Structure prediction request, 416 residues.
Amino acid sequence: MTGRRLDEGDYIDRNEIIGIVQRQPTLQNQPGAEFNYNNTGFAMLAAVVERVGGRPFPQWMEDNVFRPIGMTSTVVRAHPSHVIPGSAQGYAADTLAGWRELRDIGGATGAGGIYTTVGDLALWLANFKTGKVGAPGFLEQMTTRYVLTGGDTTSYGMGLFVDRWRSIRRFQHGGADAAHRSQLIYFPDLDGGIIVDSNDAAFNAAAIADQVAGIFFADRIPPTPAVAAPAPAAAAFDPAGFDAYAGRYELAEMPGFVLTFSRDGARLLGQATGQPQFDLTATSDTTFTIKQVAASVTFHRDAGGGVTSLTLHQNGNHPARRLDAATPPARPDLAQYAGRYYSAELEVFYEVKVDGETLVATGRHTLPVTLRHGKGETFNGNMPLAAIEFQRDGQGKVTGFRAGNGRTRDVQFGRQ
Prediction:
């Protein structure tokens, strides 16, 4: 939200992170009440390691983790100007240039920023069995699912996702920055793992890892119970039938986060708030897989046959209701929202202007964000302002807005 263009070489200095946290006026939730994957906590933990360990985090990791395990080709990149010999730069497809180089994310120390090799990562996975490096009981802590204060069990331990793949236990974690993708999987019952790395921004490391696991461990995976016959192939689905599903769906657990579906000829398309467009493949007349990630959607009809909701299947089942496209809400007078807004928490301004039938927010470095009216005082955009809700005083005058972009929410901006 500060307007950094990480894909264009900007970075967030790790020393800024504590300052941002200190300026955060309130917590998003009470500790332990919900699971919200985030990098901030790991960045702060790295600072704790430095202060308690009495040396820079890269040096502490070298002395206490990498060298004892035998990872001789692994280093923490503390700053984007740090040259790593033999490193693979990240790339993204570009319609004009073919490919363009993308930088990695500075300030990721603790949450990422480690350059390594497949061989060294294999040694890292082996440590889950040997326990050569780590305090007593570390593996149990890392692989025990956290139970929230409300009683729900998450799929996350202390730094690892813990689940099952087919019929066997799995410890796993993916990684992604501007244009690097990775997936690490360890199967404790097989004492084997999968490591996938790529420097292509569009690469689906998780899907490739699953494919490799299915081939390499085929004779060691216990048979799974019989399942129903596979769904019809994509060719059996008439793309025109997707028009009934085209529209906007808002996740129930994340108001303002909208999935939008459309069709371009035979191509079925979707897009989530603040994220790039993705392709879908039909697996039946109501279910579709998302090609770029390990996810799928199921559309639901009501008693009258109308499509009123869907379920997103990605690390669980996430219901979403269809926003009423037939009778769109009355558009408010957009001029009342125009103005300059400031966040003391982020120390950043946004200028909101009227552009036809939408609002457009611009910051010092950000690309213009188109804000489309949702309902009430809410507007939906894209990164870095995926959703905002305007606020008024007792006289009805707009005084500010709260902004969110998925894992971050309720960042306060006051009208100047």
Observations:
- The domain at 234-322 is CATH 2.40.128.50 (Lipocalin).
- The chain has three domains: 6-216, 234-322, 334-415.
- Residues 76 and 82 are 10 Å apart (CA to CA).
